[in-house]
Amino acid sequence: MSNPLEQFVVKPIIPIKVGGVDISFTNSSLFMLLSVAAVALLFGVCLYRRSLIPGRAQSLPECAYNFIAGLVKDNVGAEGLKYFSFIFSVFLFVAFGNMLGLLPYSFTFTSHVMAVGTLSVSALLFNIAVGIRKRGFGYLRTFLPKGIPWPLAPLIVPIETISLLSKPFSLTVRLAANMTVGHIMLKIIAGFVVGLGVLGAVPLLFDACLIAFEFFIALLQAFIYTVLSCIYLGEALRGH
User: Fold this and answer.
1) How many independent structural domains does the chain possess?
2) What are the pLDDT digits (tens) for 188-220?
């Protein structure tokens, strides 16, 4: 049985070093690009022949669009639709990254803390920028909500700061942990298929069912990541 953790090793495809800094093009980078390309290709094919009455192909991206638009309205409000493109891009990037990682000989970049963490920190910085633009100096109320006496500021401000900075951490750990655990289970069970010979049909059938379940988890985790991103955006716009 091969090491189930081997599938998470980041390997350079095109080694590049600049001034002693490793900026190699890796398998993780490749599947990030493939995720973006897959989204562009799917939407391009489905929307190539647009019509007023959508067919089955056109309905797919339109349903995704309406679903995320409703998600933004419910969790951010009507004003959140100005930032719909960002939320929609995050959902598609995470969803396709999760699903592509389930294909044979693929790489799941959403199982890596650094990859997901970078996306989560970018989302946090985006929310801060949106909050400052919307509320100006009123955004500082994030760290000292209205109604809190000023003498409590030395206690409340650090707590609120930690709360703000923990948001990308919670987004990252939840997504990366779920993707990692699921893939480890698939790898371990698949290792019994050959070793058990004829009886390997049992773990093979179970693995097939688990793959179907993992596709559901892949979409569910993208949904949860998007919902939390919307909630955090709403907090930046409205405050406490």
Assistant:
1) 1
2) 777 777 666 656 677 778 778 888 888 899 999
